[in-house]
């Protein structure tokens, strides 16, 4: 009994010490806040001490533009060749010659593309998937969005292979050299995934001009990280027996990599390809602001003109394209995971690849028919529909009948929740935030994490962006909190009921493939521009990880532990709260981490609807082509994400270690 009590006291002592440390730290921060008249520099970073990082970055970008313009022009020329080909093939026409004597070759027929989409879905997942993918393309055609959708698809069709190849080689390099992965690749990937999408556009606009090539490069940079991570993960998960067998068979290092390891990692690689496609589609929409055109540009113009119906139609076309590409790539990944291979002994190409052969034949025939029958070349207006008046009428009806209720909710939320929370965050001492976050890092993982977290937080202050940083933290924080408040209970309910999970899964799958623009449109219709609109759109966008990770975490608890609890006499309620929930907590916290990162990404896009934070800073920099200002604001946003990510990962690792 004495030994047990001594062990309990030993475990309790560090907890008591840390409670005392945190109480003292909070007391110090409170004293600093109360003495802000005497210590103003500790609350608001002095403007006279601001480090002009934005000016330095702007000067560097100007030097690059002046001295390396030959390089950027060469890159533009090289990348422009395949991009122009894809744009002409899918969205425009090929022009041979100049002037009146120019001969025009038609783009691919819309009928042929819809048929090819059906055949691709049929080959990957059967008739049901073929109907879904073909139906999505047919929907785009019938609602008059074909040309814009093909512009978007052309950009993706060039950007995605570039991302896959680049990510594959970077992942192989990082897997072979752990030091490079730790010191170079992982930090670079963290920055690439946390810097907001708008921030990518500014240097691209400055270096490569307002053109589709700029949009493609920005898209490629943003969408490459999932492929790098999937490659590293897939290669690390290849069973050691396969590696040993390849060496026993006498394979060289190159043969082992390309003929054994990469084929074995193919299912994980295909998941990376799926994520690349979805991120590329999301980025192409945003890149429409610097010359990409397509559906994103249509949404942007409609939002600026407050044309509700047109914005919804273009947004739904984006959704249809996203669903088609997502389901198709997922089906191919699933097929690879099952180890499906073609028969290498087939005597001819068309017998080995019947769907591909038929698709090519249909595309050729329908495109040639388009030379003689205009209905094959372009979608006839007689068969197209528009729902724009219906959307406008629906919004007007809701506004007229529920205006008082919506306005009362909006005003109450602003006055009672958002404004007080914003005032608290913006008034929080910068020195106190650096100190408290550094202390959290030290408690969770030691001195290295404490120094990293403190340095990244201090960067936001010393660059003169503290007030906007805290405005971002406030809006991201309240949105992530509400998303978790909604998502975690739904995930818990889904984990306890297979029937409820079958209802929830299609909904969160749909939310996951919706591009971020599409969350803004309906909310702007009802709540106008402002923080309330940004918060609601962000909650809808960021709620998916909270649901998915919670459900997955509960279901991944080993059945042996659940059986042991039942044998011990635990009721189902006790088993859930005392066994499953504590063991799933690290997984749930990973979901919270992802929710925060997704909320941060969405908050920046919500700068388009009137928020006053770092997103607005990036947006203003983009409109003025001020590279220094935009990149520094983008880095500040990225550092917020990295701080949250590192702290939550450290907490999760500690929880996993404690639970064994």
Low-pLDDT runs: 1-11, 340-346
Question: Number of DSSP helices?
Answer: 30
Largest sheet: 2 strands, antiparallel
Strand proportion: under 5%
Sum up the overall morphology in one term. globular
Mean pLDDT: 83
Gap between N and C termini? 25 Å
What structural class do you assign from the helix and strand content? mainly alpha
| Total E-strand runs | 2
Radius of gyration: 27 Å
| Spatial strand order of the main sheet | 1-2
Work out the oligomeric state of the chains in this entry.
single chain
Helix content percent band: over 70%
Family: Belongs to the binding-protein-dependent transport system permease family.
Membrane topology: Multi-pass membrane protein
Transmembrane segments: 15-35, 42-64, 70-91, 103-123, 129-146, 153-175, 195-223, 269-291, 311-328, 356-377, 397-415, 427-443, 449-466, 473-494, 514-547, 588-610, 630-648
InterPro entries: MetI-like, MetI-like_sf
Give structural notes.
It holds the Pfam family BPD_transp_1. With 660 residues, this protein is an all-alpha fold. The protein has helices at residues 2-34, 40-43, 53-67, 69-90, 110-125, 127-142, 146-176, 178-194, 197-208, 212-223, 225-236, 240-248, 253-264, 266-287, 295-304, 308-337, 349-352, 354-369, 374-377, 388-426, 430-445, 447-462, 466-496, 498-513, 517-527, 531-555, 559-567, 572-605, 614-624, 627-659; strands spanning 94-96, 103-105. It has a two-stranded antiparallel sheet. Helix 14 (266-287) runs antiparallel to helix 16 (308-337). The longest helix has 39 residues, at 388-426. It is globular and about 80 Å long.
